[in-house]
């Protein structure tokens, strides 16, 4: 069956360091993958999308990689700040390209 | 430009009751998807509506039903509520013609079933 895993439930890092979050999937062949940020009690907010034919995508301090051979995406936040503390969700497209399947999320805490 | 709005924000029901949740999509969007998010988990896809029809459905029982109106707004109905239906219900809108499929989420409706 299809499955999405995110590396850990929670990740703590020191301010200024680079946070690396992992999204692994099985039994999927997604055309693209998205990353969302979710703050407690709020809806997810779109951050980045990467297509299957793209290896890397950047947006300000964010970088996403996508390895379809390993079936893995890495999400990096450089020069992390306490304001980056949130839960980060990866999502893979299902049928028709608009039904997204979400991973369980990783809760990131950036310590001052 | 208003984003996705959902109502009510919080509600409490008892087992066996029925609930209706409402969603207005972002201006210009024609597709509405509903997700259920249990505490500490990722959102789980319930169903998607486009052109007033259910286009796709996740692994949820028939107790979960929905509707989309001509103005693209949508409702989620849940009958015969169970304790396990307690969750944050998220509405997400998107535009079929969009290249990225980016989902715009509302703030959710927190349902507690006692």
Overview of this protein structure:
The complex is a heterodimer of chains A (112) and B (114). Chain A is mainly β and 112 residues long. Chain A has one domain: Immunoglobulins (Immunoglobulin-like, Sandwich). Chain A is 0% helix and 57% strand. In chain A, the strands form 2 sheets. In chain A, strands 2, 4, 5, 9, 10 and 11 form a 6-stranded mixed sheet that branches. In chain A, strands 1-3-8-7-6 form a 5-stranded antiparallel sheet, with no helix packed on it. The mean pLDDT of chain A is 91. Chain B is an all-beta fold and 114 residues long. The N and C termini of chain B lie far apart (37 Å). In chain B, strands 2, 4, 5, 6, 9, 10 and 11 form a 7-stranded mixed sheet that branches. A 4-stranded antiparallel sheet of chain B has the order 1-3-8-7, with no helix packed on it. Chain B is globular, with a radius of gyration of 13 Å. At the A-B interface, β4, β5, β9 and β10 of A face β4, β5, β9 and β10 of B.
List keywords for this structure.
heterodimer; A: mainly beta; Immunoglobulin-like; six-stranded mixed beta sheet; 11 strands; B: 114 residues; mainly beta; seven-stranded mixed beta sheet
Brief account:
The complex is a heterodimer of chains A (112) and B (114). Helices cover 0% and strands 57% of the residues of chain A. By secondary structure, chain A is an all-beta fold.
Number of helices of chain A: 0
Average predicted confidence as pLDDT of chain B: 94
Assign the CATH class of chain A.
Mainly Beta
CA-atom Rg of chain A in angstroms: 13 Å
Number of helices of chain B: 0
CATH class of chain B: Mainly Beta
- List SSEs of chain B in N-to-C order: EEEEEEEEEEE
Termini gap of chain B: 37 Å
Global outline of chain A: globular
Largest sheet of chain B: 7 strands, mixed
Instruction: Quote the beta fraction of chain A.
Output: over 45%
CATH topology name of chain B, in short, is Immunoglobulin-like
Which pair has the most extensive contact?
Answer: A-B, 27 and 29 residues
SS-based structural class of chain A? mainly beta
Succession of helices and strands of chain A:
EEEEEEEEEEE
Are there runs of chain B of 5+ residues with pLDDT below 50, and where?
Answer: none
Give the fraction of residues assigned to helices of chain B: under 10%
